[in-house]
Write a structure and sequence with these properties.
Rossmann fold, phosphorelay response regulator activity, alpha/beta, 13 strands, 2 domains, WalR-like, DNA-binding, disordered N terminus, single chain, 5-stranded antiparallel sheet, transcription cis-regulatory region binding, Arc Repressor Mutant, subunit A, transcription regulation
Amino acid sequence: MFWILLDSIGVHTVHVLRAVMCAQMRTQLPIRTSLPEGPRILLLVNARTGAKTIASVETALKRTGGRVRRATERTEAEQWVQRWDPEVLVLLGWSAATGDWLQRWPFAADQDDLPFLVVSSGLENHERADAVAALEAGAQAYLPASMGFEPLTAQVRNVLKKVRTQTPVRMGEEESLCIDLASLRVWVLGQEIHLPRRLFSLLHYFVLHPDEVISNEQIADILWGGRGAYLAPNTLVVKIYRLRKILESAGARGWLETVHSFGYRFSPPQGLQNVIKRSPQ
């Protein structure tokens, strides 16, 4: 009887220790992290706009999951366009000078189709006329500040959805690698390869960040849509193994490297690096 009781106590202790260890593991997991490839949104602010309005607009833009950069001068905005390659421009406030400035677009050869939206700063005296002028200048939308900022979040999401589904990503002057986001198709060295959804997203991120070490945590975040979910190490290894084998089957051997203790790196041949470009729509 004594040994039976001792054995049951031992089993109970093992279960308790296991539960404690699992609880500790859960507390170490990230609650939620945003995807590293969040859309790039450039906000150009009218100098007379109040700080409260600016903060509200920035909050609305960040709700899209995007990374927001703010500029208060048009020359500063031009520099951001050339250096950062934003996916959408949001103008907070409209004026005749803004319209003239937009007539000089593009500021860079590959930015002739940068979409933009206009949000009134609440200072305009002729809002109806300004809305007409902004739309005639090519704005995707003109949103009065009185509408609140939920419509702005929705409009920016719609614009980004169109941009990201209509613009293929190509690598190499001879298009040695092409990812078409509209048809969800991939070609490597002229051969089409077929990828499940999560591996498609992972390869897309790798291609946009060539020769950078991508950590296991980042890869888990990409595979699970930014939910901050825990991904078992062997599951991650299997995903990478599958992607590597698919690339190798198309002749891209050695393009996906393991960086021990850090993560993985997408390293295409030297001649293909630094030539990623977006094709015109």
